[in-house]
Write a structure and sequence with these properties.
By secondary structure, this protein is mainly alpha-helical. Helices cover about 80% and strands about 0% of the residues. It has five helices and no strands.
């Protein structure tokens, strides 16, 4: 998943599709690992709980992908501000 996150650019639909695919793969194989990754990326616990309460479905996967993209954009803007 780290390789996919490195390819992030704002408004990249290809990135979104890859991210959704990777989230689904990890969620199906090792949900604890997905939780650890989301924690490391700093996705809020309330967003994670909301997604996991939906169960493994396209909406929950998309919700997590958008949450990750939003958080990455926040971090990018913060880095730009303090350069």
């Amino acid at each position: 998943m780290d390789d996919i996150l490195l390819s992030y650019t704002p408004d990249n639909s290809e990135f979104h599709v890859l991210l959704c695919s990777e989230i689904e793969r990890i969620w199906n194989s090792n949900p604890e690992r997905l939780l650890a990754i989301l924690y490391r990326i700093d996705i809020s616990e309330s967003l994670v709980k909301q997604a996991f309460s939906m169960g493994i479905c396209p909406e929950a996967i998309d919700f997590l992908a958008v949450s990750i993209e939003n958080r990455m954009e926040q971090k990018r803007l913060i880095r730009l501000r303090y350069q």
